[in-house]
Amino acid sequence: MATNFLVHEKIWFDKFKYDDAERKFYEQMNGPVAGASCQHVSPMRQMEPPTKKMATPAEDDEDNDIDLFGSDEEEDKEAARLREERLKQYAEKKAKKPSLVAKSSILLDVKPWDDETDMAKLEACVRSVQLDGLLWGGSKLVPVGYGIRKLQIQCVVEDDKVGTDLLEEEITKFEEHVQSVDIAAFNKI
């Protein structure tokens, strides 16, 4: 019964042979492994540590003569002139390119004092605000309650020229028509 058990069992009694063959294959492909700690030692037999080849002083001198990163001393005048010329061309090209202006789309809610406020006059007052970098868009009247309507007006501003505080301040100067100004929506373009 015990012998039948071993027939079906897959035990590697000679696994070290396969490990050695695999190690030799990779050593042929890549060279020997440096250091004995990386090598597998089979429990069935011991391996001798690999011999390390020591570099001679003449070989060390050859390695020190190679300058992998180059030095500033060896840079010739032609390469410096070429680099300066390319930098100048790049600067000129960049100067010609128009710069991107940051813009925002703002939806303002302008609230009147009461239901008797002339909304056409209110809108004319708001549109009379003219600032560099400000462009007025569409508007509509939105009911608030009790017959009162607010003016919703769209504008596009350049962020570096017109701030929201400045815009609100200019609109609220029309005290007889405007009660308050709120920002309903603010989107970067």
UniProtKB/TrEMBL annotation:
CDD domains: EF1B. PANTHER family: EF-HAND AND COILED-COIL DOMAIN-CONTAINING FAMILY MEMBER, ELONGATION FACTOR 1-DELTA. Keywords: Elongation factor, Protein biosynthesis. Residues 45-77 are annotated as: Disordered. Signal peptide: none annotated. It comes from the Eukaryota. PROSITE patterns: EF1BD_2. This is Elongation factor 1-delta. Residues 103-189 form the Translation elongation factor EF1B beta/delta subunit guanine nucleotide exchange domain. The keyword Protein biosynthesis applies. One of its GO terms (cellular component) is cytosol. The keyword Protein biosynthesis applies. GO terms for molecular function: guanyl-nucleotide exchange factor activity; translation elongation factor activity. Belongs to the EF-1-beta/EF-1-delta family. It comes from Cavia porcellus. Pfam families: EF-1_beta_acid, EF1_GNE. Residues 58-77 have a biased composition (Acidic residues). Residues 68-94 form the Elongation factor 1 beta central acidic region eukaryote domain. InterPro entries: eEF-1beta-like_sf, EF-1_beta_acid_region_euk, EF1B_bsu/dsu, EF1B_bsu/dsu_GNE, Transl_elong_EF1B/ribsomal_bS6, Transl_elong_EF1B_B/D_CS. Gene3D superfamilies: 3.30.70.60.
